[in-house]
Amino acid sequence: MLSPAPAGAARLIPFITLREGEHDLSRQSLVLRPHGAGVRLAYSDEGSDDRDFRGLLYARIPQVLDVAGWPVGRPEREGVHPGRQRECMGEFFCHVCKRDVGEFTNALGVLFVEVVGQQDRTKPGWPEGHVTCQPPVCPAHAGNAVGLGPHVPRADVVAMRVRTQHWHGLLGTPYQPSPDGGDPQPAPTPDGSGETVIAFDDPQRHLFLGSRLAISLHDVTVVDLDREIAAADIS
User: Fold this and answer.
1) Distance, CA of 110 to CA of 66 (rounded, Å)
2) Nearby residues of 61 by Cβ (< 8 Å), 6 or more positions away
3) pLDDT tens digits, residue range 173-186?
4) Does the N-terminal peptide bond of residue 82 adopt cis geometry, omega within 30 degrees of 0?
5) Centroid of chain to Cα 136
6) Which of 21, 92, 166, 174 could bond to 187 as cystine, CB 3.0-4.6 Å?
């Protein structure tokens, strides 16, 4: 397991951020294999690390690491590495510095920071049940969370303390058989982006290439991001 980044490192590039040279190699090996009464997405040279314990397939993106095992190279700011995201979400590590966020939990729970548009906030009951692919973050690095930047309206940045989380599903790309019987092709998504979130029990999950784990948040309290960062600086 990689060691956490130094706790005092300034303006850390988030651990899960995609780096230059980390290219998606999935498409070149994707095939369809018989599965039950139908077919499922697979790699022609599939290995044990390509699926999770639920049997769901994940994107193949190699990692560019230094001798200590830490990601290096120019950051691709809009990208997230699937393997590192899964590690931080699964182990509940800070997605910036890779420290255990259990060290920074208070009575309101674990800290999450992400960009949430105004339209999403109008959903009934929000933020209860909010589905996110953004792993937790420690207060000291909350201002470095993935997705934050000068181009993002501050009003869209939400900090939440969360007591309960449930596994929800995956963000990724749905696939479908090619009309000519060739290689599987990406299927349309509701918003036209090419990616969508599906639940773990979705009937189409076997034709899905996952890129990030998704969880739902419960017992949520929206908190002040500046106060969280200030409190971390004081401590």
Assistant:
1) 30
2) 18, 22, 23, 24, 25, 26, 81, 82, 83
3) 999 998 887 789 99
4) no
5) 10
6) 174
Give the Cα separation of 136 and 114 in Å (integer): 9
Q: What are 41's strand-pairing partners?
A: 32
Which tokens hold the place of 66?
């230094």
> How far is Cα 183 from Cα 34, in angstroms, rounded to an integer?
14
CA distance 58 to 85: 12
Q: Whole-model pTM?
A: 0.91
| Residue carrying the six token digits 């809009």 | 78
- pLDDT tens for residues 110-133? 999 999 988 889 999 999 999 999
Residue 189, token pair as written in the block: 């998504």
In 65-130, DSSP assigns E strands to: 75-80, 110-115
User: Do residues 161 and 122 lie in contact, with contact meaning Cβ atoms separated by under 8 Å?
Assistant: no
